[in-house]
Automatic annotation (TrEMBL):
SUPFAM superfamilies: P-loop containing nucleoside triphosphate hydrolases. It holds the Pfam family ABC_tran. Belongs to the ABC transporter superfamily. SMART domains: AAA (SM00382). This is ABC transporter ATP-binding protein. The keyword Glycoprotein does not apply. One of its GO terms (molecular function) is ATP hydrolysis activity. The lineage of its organism: Bacteria, Bacillati, Actinomycetota, Actinomycetes, Kitasatosporales. The keyword Endoplasmic reticulum does not apply. Residues 2-227 form the ABC transporter domain.
Amino acid sequence: MIEVEGLTKRYGEKVAVNELSFAVRPGIVTGFLGPNGAGKSTTMRMILGLDRPTAGDVRIDGMHYDGLRDPLKYIGALLDATAVHGGRSAFNHLLCLAQSNGIPKARVHEVLDTVGLTPVARKKAKGFSLGMGQRLGIAGALLGDPRILMFDEPVNGLDPEGIHWIRNVMKSLAAQGRTVFVSSHLMSEMALTADHLVVIGQGRLLADTSMADFIQRNSRSYVRIRTPQRERLFDVLYEAGVTVVETGGGALEVDGGKPERIGELAARHQIVLHELSPRQASLEEAFMRLTAESVEYHAHAETPPNEWGDGWKREG
Ligand SMILES: Nc1ncnc2c1ncn2[C@@H]1O[C@H](COP(=O)(O)OP(=O)(O)OP(=O)(O)O)[C@@H](O)[C@H]1O
């Protein structure tokens, strides 16, 4: 378990982390989300004792990082996969880490095998691809067989196979009862990986809740309908007190409506339906909604490119 209490970090005038309190529990994957500059990396660095908090406290399984003997046995982290001495081989990099934490050499072979780097174990890390570097970073995190694991943007720059692999690693670590805390900007990936979310904006806590609850609270659920008898259905729903909005492509939408009720009303009035589908916004939309006010730097494109979809729009 990671417990963060009243954590604050100031850099001069800049408050990077602002009285943040949350707990990361074992047995599940907890996602750490926030727009650029929200303070995620700073928080993770303070959890690892790499940055000193201006105020507040962090406990790792009830203890302070400074007080941990052989810290890799308690918490393993991937913060910056490029932070490896490029001239060292993967094996030697891990061996150095192991030796400074009282971890036997045999464990180096084990973790190299786990991450699939055994064939290149003697190759210099500077020749590694981004994906191999991430795998090496993960091997380092696993080295001490810690109960707590923390990953900052572990899928950055990885190909789909690498992303899939990391997702499974995180899920299986959590299934073993470990505490897994992971940040990512890839919302679709986070939606597949995390069970719980801690969301921050401008250093402050915005949400600390389950994935399902976060999406439900911060997004719109609606029913999408397509019918060749639009006017007729419009009238029937209006009379029944159901508010319908027309959308592009000839579809109708009912906010928060129940598909059963709409289907029954349509049937009673013999209206043909071509589509009646309940829709839930994605994690990405929910995230954009919640954090719209706390984004540090907004793009100011007059007309956004099509591929941005509607998610870029701010409310109100
Ligand atoms: N050493 C530093 N000196 C001054 N300001 C800093 C320093 N480190 C971070 N900051 C500022 O603190 C804020 C939080 O930064 P941080 O890197 O923790 O955010 P983040 O959520 O990890 O962002 P990103 O998603 O872009 O990685 C930013 O405004 C950043 O510019």
